[in-house]
Design goal:
heterodimer, A: 579 residues, MetI-like fold, two-stranded antiparallel sheet, B: 377 residues, 3 domains
């Protein structure tokens, strides 16, 4: 019997709340989620038929669809998108699984600090870090290239960041690998060591155990993380725009970016491109759902044990390799960002006095920076708390109940992830502007919170869902048999076990709230604009130095929050293996 | 009896007292209207109505705007709330709101390209001319060239400042043997692959610069330049700056003049120089959104800011907080001494590309179209 169905069969002792009332509650959740995610999707469809939306006489027609299919470089862009996404996902998956396992389930030295290192890498601001890599390895200007020419007496460029592999490299070095480690470590921690112990007892090596025991058990979670990563990769455009343009490498999402930012904006064309994207990605989601339903394995049971695997002589060499990788992902770009923020002109060293503190003085004394700082804090905190609560509830309904609409609910949570962010924000704006219920909160911070929650719904729900699927049913059944209610069981049994996953999601939603741009670009007002919007405005205007300062501020806030969460988790015992 | 007949009938004529009251009322009304039409009275009445209102702005976040708005708020007791957005985001947002009957913004302040080329034709703006009250603002003779007071023929966008920007830059440290003293030199085969161009598929200094090449040399030259010289296209302004300043490229097309000025001011970019060419004019302006929620406050700001006093504050604060652009279109407001080069020569105004007004629409559209053809090949 599939795991989810086994989980769904609750003994009568848990049903203190009348079934009809429960169903009503679940239906209400389904209705709210359906409205929040289907409305923007519906507007997307309508928008695809709106022709000349910015003229005095807009009309309805198929011109946007024709325009998309007559694009000469569309096929090449799709090819680039697929190959670039697959390449970086495969690399990140391979290393992500190994690193997550090493951190979570072995006696790797300073594993906790290495994990924090990946958090820092994940929270680094993408655009300034990409520009930092340009300064390091850009063709003709790269510091590393110039150093290599001097050191090895060569007359060619050793690195060229403006290339297919350059794009892959920067993605892997920024979020692609880091998010895999970030999401997989808590899941790996929750795995029962009995499986590994059995394999080791039978004589399997550490690596064989990883490949034949750990990976198959964790596959549903790995697949969720991979599908989410793949969707993110397919939508990514910032790095591609900066590194791909000089090398004439176009991807699908840059076409959407150019349509949205054209003069006039071609929102209809962007809508068509997004609908095609949605159509292409939905089968992936369906496949993932089918797999999760049929192959979930409970790895947390009443006999849970967490004994770490001994790496033997490989302990310190492996630590060295990961530490080196992390320093490339964090120390190098971070140092360049800090350096850039103290330069009169980023990357220009041959000035009489290239260094200055004026950018910092200005940033720290500007009223809008201070206001944006507090807005970001409020936005991140509110979105994080709301997200943890909502996603836990949705995931619980999808996994642990027999509600007939649970699969639809589960599917719906994916939708915000498969609509490109640039276009999703327009759909959300339409919702707030058109639906009378939302109008009173339009212009307040609540709108931004809701947008961030919608935007992170897929990631949050699916990761918590994967954690719930790993829980053996007997844990709850034991609680119910003792007369506990469903809520009490959730609070005292389920929640502590999935707490690491929920905390990670809380942190990720917080980080999104602090650094989000696309989702809130159309929704913020002067009074509610967060730091991320200020950063975008600086960078857009060519003011890298203050942009880098705001980026550093964002990173500092997020990393501080992560460290605080970790400290609280460790103090309360939630951060340790198995909850 | 017909109506005309009744009017002629003495019995039907108005009683004296009625006639007196009617005449008195007419005189009172006429004098009231005459008084009310006095601009100073209208100005005072508008200020009184606007007091306590919160004026909502869409801006591009230029640093000098803050002190200007502070001064305005202090003087008139009107609170100001600015929302900083990319112009394309402003367009998308306000259009969506207006389509759904939401009118939340009063004024839009910044570079006028999107106001002129998108918002005005889409009917998103009010006629700014109707907001002008003070004679010193309305009087076209107070402005340097009447034809450039408004950004477009519908008088929905007031352009109060026009700034000269140069087209392209050369770094002599790269290929020093090469003489690049005209646009023709851009086709020198030795420059192939050594030219950096800002992505001109969206409106920015790249499309503006290409429009100057188009104006100077025609579409065939621009096509040839893009297709045969294999230029490297950069999406980010910082990327382009670093490419030319660090000697990665010999020529940059689409670099902001202000970045070059900044570098020179810091004592750098000594090997860089402008390539003589057609210049483009970037205009700054004000527009009022359709059905603004606080029209009186909007009127007060528009009139104060476009008055001599307001424009003096503009020039002073712009010079203090920005490397370029402290030039007013008002005749009675002198440009800042360090920004004199930014002032257009209106005697040869037709030789510029006016990228932020409707005068430059065709050039920009054509340059963008040619660039897109090249980029999508």
């Amino acid at each position: 019997m599939p795991r989810s169905e086994m989980n769904a069969s609750a003994p009568p002792a848990a049903r203190r709340v009348p079934v009809a009332l429960q169903s009503l509650g679940y239906t209400l959740v389904l209705a709210v989620v359906a409205f929040l995610v289907l409305y923007p999707a519906f507007r997307l469809l309508i928008g695809s038929f709106e022709v000349d939306a910015f003229s005095a006489n807009p009309s309805v027609g198929l011109e946007n669809w024709q325009a998309v299919f007559s694009r000469p470089r569309l096929i090449a862009a799709i090819e680039n998108t697929i190959t670039l996404s697959l390449a970086r996902q495969l690399i990140a998956l391979l290393f992500g699984v190994i690193i997550a396992w090493l951190i979570a389930r072995t006696n790797l030295p300073m594993a906790g600090w290495l994990e924090v290192g990946f958090w820092i890498a994940l929270f680094m601001p993408a655009l300034p870090v990409t520009l930092a890599w340009v300064l390091l390895a850009g063709e003709g200007i790269g510091i590393l290239n110039n150093a290599a020419k001097l050191a090895f007496a060569i007359d060619y460029e050793l690195f060229n960041i403006y290339s297919w592999w350059g794009i892959v490299w920067v993605h892997v070095m920024t979020a692609t690998l880091a998010i895999k480690v970030f999401l997989l470590v808590p899941a790996f921690r929750n795995m029962d060591a009995a499986f590994e112990d059995a394999a080791r007892t039978c004589g399997a090596s550490v690596w064989k155990t990883l490949l034949h025991i750990v990976v198959p058990i964790m596959l549903p979670t790995i697949i969720v993380v991979t599908v989410l990563g793949l969707i993110r990769s397919l939508q990514a455009f910032e790095v591609e725009l900066i590194l791909g343009s000089p090398a004439k490498i176009d991807v699908y999402s840059t076409a959407i970016y150019r349509a949205v930012n054209g003069q006039p904006p071609q929102q209809g064309v962007a809508s068509v491109l997004s609908i095609i994207f949605l159509g292409a990605v939905v089968p992936l989601v369906v496949l993932q759902q089918w797999y999760a339903q049929h192959h979930a394995v409970a790895s947390v049971s009443s006999k849970f044990s967490h004994r770490v695997q001994d790496l033997g002589r490989l302990r310190w060499p492996l630590f060295g390799v990961i530490a080196l990788l992390l320093s490339m992902m964090t120390v190098l770009p971070f140092a360049l960002l800090v350096m850039g923020s103290f330069m009169k002109l980023f990357g220009i060293f041959d000035l009489p006095e290239p260094w200055t503190t004026s950018h910092w003085v200005e940033a720290m004394t500007r009223g809008d920076v201070q206001r944006a700082f507090w807005n970001s804090m409020k936005l991140g905190t509110a979105a994080s708390l709301s997200g943890m609560l909502c996603f836990s509830l949705i995931a619980y309904i999808a996994v642990k109940t027999r509600f007939s609409g649970r699969r639809i609910l589960d599917f719906l949570t994916w939708l915000p992830a498969v609509i490109p962010g640039l276009v999703l924000s327009l759909g959300i704006l339409q919702m707030f502007a058109a639906v009378p219920l939302f109008r009173p909160i339009y212009g307040t911070l609540a709108v931004l919170v809701l947008a961030v929650v919608i935007g992170t719904m897929a990631l949050g729900t699916q990761i918590i869902k994967a954690a719930l699927l790993n829980l053996g049913a007997e844990l709850e059944e034991a609680s119910w048999a003792c007369g506990a209610s469903r809520f009490y069981t959730f609070r005292r049994v389920v929640l502590p076990l999935i707490a690491p996953a929920v905390a990670v999601i809380g942190l990720e939603v917080f980080a999104t709230g602090i650094s989000v741009v696309g989702l809130v670009a159309l929704l913020g007002t002067g009074a509610t604009q967060p730091l991320s919007m200020l950063q975008l405005i600086y960078l857009d205007g060519g003011f890298f130095e203050p942009g880098a300062i705001v980026g550093l501020l964002i990173t500092t806030i997020t990393v501080s929050a992560a460290l605080l969460a970790r400290y609280i988790g460790l103090k309360s015992g939630l951060g340790r293996a198995g909850g | 009896m017909t109506k005309a007949g009744a009017m002629m009938n003495p019995k039907a004529a108005m009683k004296p007292e009625t006639l007196f009251i009617t005449l008195a009322a007419t005189c009172f009304l006429a004098s009231t209207v005459a008084l009310a039409q006095n601009p100073q009275d209208i100005w005072k009445a508008t200020q009184a109505k606007a007091r306590g209102q919160v004026l909502t702005f869409q801006t591009q976040g230029d640093k000098p705007m803050d002190p200007i708005l502070e001064e305005f708020s202090k003087k008139f007791g009107i609170k100001v709330e600015t929302t900083v957005s990319r112009p394309t985001a402003t367009i998308g947002r306000v259009r969506t709101e207006q389509t759904n009957g939401q009118y939340l913004w009063d004024l839009w302040w910044g570079i006028t390209s999107n106001m002129v080329h998108v918002a005005a034709p889409a009917g998103m703006l009010s006629k700014i001319e109707d907001y002008l009250i003070l004679p010193e603002v309305k009087d076209a003779s107070n402005w340097r060239h009447a034809a450039y007071m408004y950004g477009e023929p519908g008088h929905q966008v007031f352009t109060y400042s026009h700034e000269v920007n140069v087209g392209a830059f050369r770094n002599k440290a790269v290929l020093p043997e090469l003489k690049v003293d005209s646009l023709d030199a851009l086709l020198d085969p030795r420059l192939k692959g050594r030219i950096a161009v800002r992505d001109a598929s969206v409106p920015n200094a790249g499309s503006f610069n290409l429009s100057t090449i188009l104006k100077a040399k025609g579409p065939d030259f621009l096509r040839k330049f893009l297709t045969t010289m294999d230029p490297k296209v950069y999406a980010n302004p910082q990327q382009l700056d670093v490419a030319i300043m660090r000697g990665g490229s010999a020529v940059a097309v689409g670099m902001q003049s202000s970045a070059f000025s900044e570098c020179r001011k810091a004592g750098g970019c000594k090997t860089m120089e402008e390539i003589p060419s057609v210049s483009y004019i970037q205009s700054r302006g004000l527009s009022a959104f359709k059905n603004p929620p606080h029209p009186e406050a909007a009127r007060v700001f528009v009139n104060w800011f476009l008055s001599r006093e307001g424009q003096e504050v503009f020039v002073r604060e712009w010079a203090r907080n920005s490397i370029s652009g402290a030039v007013s279109h008002r005749k009675d407001v002198a440009p800042h001494k360090d920004h004199l080069a930014d002032m257009p020569d209106f005697a040869r105004a037709d030789q510029y590309v006016w990228v932020s007004t409707s005068l430059g629409s065709k050039d920009i559209e054509e340059a963008t179209r040619i660039f897109k053809q090249f980029a999508e090949k």
